[in-house]
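Structure in, sequence out. Go:
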């Protein structure tokens, strides 16, 4: 039996389960809101082309209008100044989009402080307890934030000082950039904390991770259904030529216990 036939057999028998970790994409999907004077991306909207009518009696289809960074989406290196000479979304090697999934669960810390920042100490503690992150892994930051996904106000968690959501400190972002991972996935609207604009550099995960040819993945769901290790993540963005990112479908292959 080949590796592929073995995988197909395990999928067919249910020995391996496929878990979708993608947020549904609709006009109600929360999107990042930058303060003035910065420009913002647009939410998803559908424009009917035909609907089994005179414009197309046997078919229905739509034009889609949305931004590259709407909903569950991949951040490519050229999304940020530090990575602007790097890969656009269409040139990311496909092998970098599939890899071991490692779930880092810090829900308790985020429940106590929505502005919680992941520090090197948290990452070093994980490595001390469980060993190094696998080469090419996707580190998935489980914060419990996905539970807010149906409520844009709660998801943004904003006040007069801007949004408050968990993320990574400057030193933590440097740790991730120097690691062997392919990418970093979060449940929040973006890969940086809500207050990351006040850090130095601003938005340090974007700055350090994308500048190191690693990738971001946002607005994940169902991380509670993944084991800490042992799953494989598959990330499937659109290969937009020259794209700085893309809405993506992401799913995990999880062995049944």
């Amino acid at each position: 039996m080949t590796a592929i036939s073995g995988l197909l057999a395990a999928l067919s028998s249910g020995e391996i389960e496929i878990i979708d970790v993608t947020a549904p994409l609709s006009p109600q999907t929360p999107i990042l809101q930058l303060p003035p004077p910065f420009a913002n991306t647009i939410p998803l909207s559908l424009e009917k082309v035909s609907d089994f009518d005179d414009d197309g009696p046997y078919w229905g289809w739509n034009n889609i209008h949305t931004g590259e960074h709407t909903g569950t989406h991949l951040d490519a290196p050229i999304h940020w100044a530090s990575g602007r000479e790097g890969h656009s979304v269409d040139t990311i090697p496909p092998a970098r989009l599939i890899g071991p999934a490692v779930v880092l669960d810090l829900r308790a810390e985020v429940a106590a402080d929505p502005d919680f920042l992941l520090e090197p100490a948290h990452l070093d503690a994980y490595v001390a307890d469980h060993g190094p992150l696998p080469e090419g892994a996707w580190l998935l930051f489980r914060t419990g934030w996905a539970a807010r996904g149906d409520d844009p106000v709660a998801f943004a968690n904003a006040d007069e000082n801007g949004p408050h959501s968990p993320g990574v400190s400057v030193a933590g972002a440097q740790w991730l950039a120097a690691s062997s991972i392919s990418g970093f996935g979060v449940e929040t609207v973006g890969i940086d904390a809500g207050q990351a604009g006040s850090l130095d550099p601003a938005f340090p995960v974007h700055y350090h991770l994308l500048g190191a040819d690693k990738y971001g993945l946002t607005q994940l769901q169902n991380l509670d259904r993944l084991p800490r290790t042992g799953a494989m993540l598959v990330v499937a963005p659109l290969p937009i030529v020259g794209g700085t990112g893309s809405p993506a479908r992401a799913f995990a292959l999880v062995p049944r216990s």
